[in-house]
């Protein structure tokens, strides 16, 4: 609220937040945060002790339900170790989640889905700055992934036995430098072309918003060249 000029100090923010029902803060730091002003607000009479109790109660109720205060032996998660990370069960579940989250906005002439049994007879071109760049595939607040577990569109299709040609066109999402000749050389010989475009955290993220929804740099030109 302070950053948006709704309030003018941490103390005023603490008072407004508690009175509005807020009981959790994504703080600026442990020593200098908004809710550290609560004792001062309480002493000034801007909030009451009963109000604080009402705000804190659901927090501790939730922590108790999660077992945070139980002995470690009672917590089933205590027995987990690093062997569960990227286990086959978890990877299969991630694959299922990815498949079920796809959104197909327009499917002209039933082009999709591509059938695995047909891929070996077709020449695929995978192009664009997101076609084979693992670093740009994850959004804001995503964990830092292990590169060996990242499947770019190019890598995934190659694993299916497809005859794949690749051209980034531009090496990063901002697409300030675009190689049209590189793109046309790959696209011209293909039966199917997959164009992988977007923004990524290099272009937009929290506190770095854009004023429009246009594709960055030369990405639109890349798309038009691929279609033509």
From TrEMBL:
Domain of life: Eukaryota
Residue ranges constituting the Glycoside hydrolase family 3 C-terminal domain according to the UniProt record: 103-226
Record-linked InterPro entries: BXL (IPR044993), GH (IPR017853), Glyco_hydro_3_C (IPR002772), Glyco_hydro_3_C_sf (IPR036881), Glyco_hydro_3_N_sf (IPR036962)
Gene Ontology terms: biological process: arabinan catabolic process; xylan catabolic process
Pfam families documented for this protein: Glyco_hydro_3_C (PF01915)
A single GO molecular function term of this UniProt record: alpha-L-arabinofuranosidase activity
Alphabetically ordered keywords of this record: Glycosidase, Hydrolase
SUPFAM superfamilies membership: (Trans)glycosidases, Beta-D-glucan exohydrolase, C-terminal domain
Protein name: XYL2 arabinofuranosidase
Organism of derivation: Melospiza melodia (Song sparrow)
